[in-house]
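Design a sequence for this backbone.
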């Protein structure tokens, strides 16, 4: 009775149009169906072809069978040494590679525009990402490692992104090295990139310290002795919407040249993220040197660029990650160091990284240090060992309150170079 009265008292404004209830019900049913299909289609795809090299896009290489889709997690962790060939861009959910057990699991990128788009990336121990290389001037840039993740990327201890010698080719007999900074075919010339190649015909620098990564250039071939120049280091580009953690390594080093040739320049590593972290990680873009005591030119160092949100980064501890853009060792008349290339660059959007981890007196960076606002650095104690640091900022001041040590100044190439700058050691204790 009450229900009838209430029903009659409903206003016209409050009534649903005819058929509306059916439409709402139908919409809910369809939404449930689409949601159910989405959930049902999400899966964990596990790579099962654990010998040799096989194609990502062949469905029978996965369990359950079928090429992974946008909602699928991808797991490449079965033990053994094998490679997964990625020849085109893919979009998936979470991605894992590596893991315990014998062997190395590798994801091999082919083609410059191939990108792995994910939610999260984890490179475990025994996990490796690399690319095909080297390559010549045509096409201009052929292959790199390119990753775009909406959340986080983590390289665990023992995991690696390795594009050593995956850049432009070194030159054969009497030819110039490939790439914008290819070494000349005479003068035993190294390739250039972030730093100029060694020797009189050393390759030029190119690219911008704060820009995306290019590959390194090849060393020049011998002008009359039959040697082959070293390849340049490859290119790595990472874009992450969250945290990038490097506890393992990223390496993009140039290759060694043969006798009377040039080493390849270091490659390029570009990382853009919200925040950056790491404990005992390593990122290197070192130039290649000489494979013998014959006359040769060293490759220049490459470029490392880490872009992050400076405001958010203040909530993170200063990462304990070593960055190196060292030039390749070279020889002249049997003497090591005669025709070295130039230092590459290490760039951050602000200078706090260059302070080093708290309480760590060992300075871990090699390269030309670049950051907006890099006007001074202060240390209680500073020890340089097997590093080469160059700061060319005008009116820069380096202050060391207690001890400054530069170790191995004569036997290695440990250097501290300050251009248009001053250095103060407050307690005046200096050791070499």
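Sequence:
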């Amino acid at each position: 009775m009450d229900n009838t009265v209430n029903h009659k008292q409903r206003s016209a404004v409050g009534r649903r149009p005819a058929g509306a209830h059916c439409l709402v019900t139908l919409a809910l049913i369809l939404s449930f169906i689409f949601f159910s299909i989405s959930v049902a289609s999400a899966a964990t795809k596990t790579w099962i072809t654990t010998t040799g090299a096989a194609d990502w896009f062949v469905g029978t290489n996965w369990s359950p069978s079928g090429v992974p889709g946008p909602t699928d997690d991808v797991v490449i962790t079965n033990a053994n040494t094998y490679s997964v060939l990625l020849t085109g861009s893919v979009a998936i959910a979470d991605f894992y590679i590596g893991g315990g057990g014998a062997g190395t699991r590798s994801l091999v990128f082919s083609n410059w525009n191939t990108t792995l788009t994910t939610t999260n990336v984890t490179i475990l121990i025994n996990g490796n990402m690399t690319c095909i290389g080297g390559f010549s001037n045509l096409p201009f840039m052929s292959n790199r490692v390119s990753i775009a993740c909406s959340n986080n990327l983590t390289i665990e201890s023992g995991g690696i992104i390795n594009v050593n010698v995956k850049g432009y080719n070194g030159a054969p007999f009497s030819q110039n090295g490939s790439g914008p900074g290819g070494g000349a075919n005479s003068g035993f010339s190294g390739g250039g990139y972030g730093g100029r190649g060694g020797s009189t015909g050393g390759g030029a620098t190119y690219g911008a310290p704060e820009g995306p990564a290019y590959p390194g250039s090849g060393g020049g071939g011998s002008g009359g002795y039959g040697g082959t120049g070293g390849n340049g280091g490859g290119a790595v580009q990472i874009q992450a919407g969250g945290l990038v953690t490097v506890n393992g390594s990223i390496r993009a080093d140039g290759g060694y040249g043969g006798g009377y040739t040039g080493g390849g320049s270091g490659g390029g590593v570009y990382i853009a993220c919200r925040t950056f972290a790491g404990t005992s990680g390593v990122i290197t873009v070192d130039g290649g040197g000489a494979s013998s005591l014959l006359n040769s030119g060293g490759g220049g160092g490459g470029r490392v660029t880490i872009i992050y949100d400076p405001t958010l980064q203040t909530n993170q501890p200063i990462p304990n990650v070593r960055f190196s853009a060292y030039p390749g060792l070279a020889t002249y008349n049997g003497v090591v160091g005669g025709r070295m290339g130039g230092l590459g660059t290490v760039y951050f959007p602000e200078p706090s990284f260059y302070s080093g981890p708290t309480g760590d007196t060992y300075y871990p960076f090699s390269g030309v240090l670049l950051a907006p606002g890099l006007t001074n650095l202060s240390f209680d104690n500073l020890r340089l060992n097997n590093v080469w640091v160059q700061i060319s900022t005008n009116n820069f001041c380096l202050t060391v309150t207690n001890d400054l040590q530069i170790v191995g100044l004569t036997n290695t190439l440990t250097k501290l170079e300050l251009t248009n700058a001053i250095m103060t050691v407050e307690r005046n204790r200096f050791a070499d």
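Residues 1-40 have pLDDT under 50 and may be disordered.
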